[in-house]
Write a structure and sequence with these properties.
The protein has 401 residues and is of the alpha/beta class. The protein is 36% helix and 18% strand. The strands form two sheets. The chain has an eight-stranded mixed beta sheet with strand order 1-2-3-8-7-6-4-5, with helices on one face. It starts with 18 loop residues before the first helix and ends with a helix.
């Protein structure tokens, strides 16, 4: 294996990683310093959106929130550091600043990924993190508002619906029909909730491209046996958000989400950048008592996880669908692997093998996916074995990886 280049970018930091940060390393996220939100970022956010909370329109003291100014600060970092010149996509993890002393807030972001697997990785990694800290009986609520074409059709239809029922809305909510009709879907006033249940559904107005994107996201959830439900009232700011919106919630319907995710592909151009940046992220809120800050991850553990002895290659759509299950199975046994799941071309996976000179290569193709197995190949001897996914950890440990 090649040694690490110690000249890390100034925004990257492997110092003071906690339990949550360690889990993200197994999925391939790079830890970065908390991105500073400047006054200019907040000013731009205010111009783009009246509220700092994108998905959950309710003001609350606990629970996950998505803040527009944080997304703006991240995209400004992406532009300032010329991160678009690096192999895409990029996967970042950061611990966020929060005023809540009883909660820790984290963010996982994927920049430069258009495919549905990006959403699947965020959801799977977040559920793994939440499970590690003791959360149980979680489920995903998900929806799609589609692309620009989809949004135009849906916005027209839902505006007409609320104008028709204007007299039925509470007086305080009527201005929202013109100001931000989407926010009515998240309003907790009894009459608004009733109208939201019967309003047009965004998924019925998806373009073919958006319909296929959402379908693939759901296929990943089903393959991973992740409990989910489609929540038609779950929407995001139509000025810069697109496609998928998702939340991770406890069984208690009155509790606030423990994680919120959005895709914000059109935000970069709204900021004046030359090109759109495909971007999707999730924000997590975890009770402080569940993540001991006195227990930091050792540098030796970080080195092992970030420089694994195994490369995981997936060949074909069937293997892609099942690959996250393989990754989580290995993570539970603390076996790290290098992967390029979010890269579409085979050359990216071959390049990873050549770059890392990994002694072990794990391969899953269509046949293996159907058999719930993987091929484990010794790079030196060229010998290989086919083993069930459940047996892979024991086999890999024999290679002392």
């Amino acid at each position: 294996m090649k040694k690490r280049n110690n000249a890390l970018p100034s925004y990257v930091s492997y110092e003071d990683l906690d339990q949550v940060g360690e889990a993200t390393l197994f999925y391939g996220f790079t830890p970065i310093k908390t991105v500073t939100v400047h006054h200019e970022d907040s000013a731009v956010a205010k111009n783009l959106s009246d509220g700092e909370v994108v998905v959950d329109h309710d003001t609350h003291e606990i629970g996950a929130v998505v803040k527009l100014d944080e997304k703006i600060a991240l995209l400004n970092l992406y532009e300032r550091e010329k991160l678009y010149t690096l192999p895409q996509p990029l996967m970042f993890f950061q611990r966020k600043n929060t005023r809540h002393k009883n909660e820790l807030h984290y963010g996982l972001e994927i920049l430069g990924a258009t495919k549905p697997m990006a959403e699947a990785i965020l959801i799977q990694a977040s559920l793994a993190i939440l499970s590690d800290v003791g959360e149980k009986n979680l489920h995903v609520e998900i929806n799609s508002i589609g692309d620009k074409e989809s949004l135009t059709r849906f916005s027209k239809e839902i505006t007409a619906y609320y104008k028709k029922h204007l007299a039925d809305l509470p007086a305080s909510c009527r201005p929202l029909v013109k100001k931000d009709v989407f926010s009515l879907l998240g309003c907790q006033h009894g009459k608004c909730e009733e109208l939201a249940r019967n309003c047009p559904k965004s998924i019925n107005f998806l373009s073919e491209k958006s319909r296929l994107h959402f379908k693939e996201v759901l296929e990943y959830l089903e393959t991973l046996d992740i409990p989910y439900s489609i929540n038609n009232t779950l929407v995001a700011n139509r000025d810069y958000c697109t496609e998928t919106i998702f939340e991770i919630r406890r069984e208690d319907k009155d509790s606030h989400p423990v994680a919120i995710g959005i895709r914000y592909d059109t935000l970069a151009k709204r900021l004046g950048q030359k090109k759109d940046v495909s971007a999707v992220g999730i924000s997590l809120a975890i009770p402080s008592r569940r993540v001991p800050q006195s227990k930091k991850i050792k540098k030796s553990s970080v080195e092992k996880i970030t420089h694994p002895s195994i490369v995981f290659m997936q060949l074909g759509n069937e293997a892609k669908l099942l690959s996250l299950r393989v990754l989580e199975t290995l993570r539970k046994h603390r076996i790290p692997v290098a992967h390029t799941m979010l890269r579409e071309k085979m050359s990216g996976q071959i390049g990873l093998v050549e770059k890392t000179q990994a002694p072990v290569i794990m391969i899953m193709g269509k046949k293996e996916a159907m058999e719930q197995s993987v091929i484990i190949r010794d790079s030196e001897t060229r010998s290989q074995d086919s083993v069930l996914i459940t047996d892979a950890p024991a086999k890999l440990k024999k290679y002392r990886v």
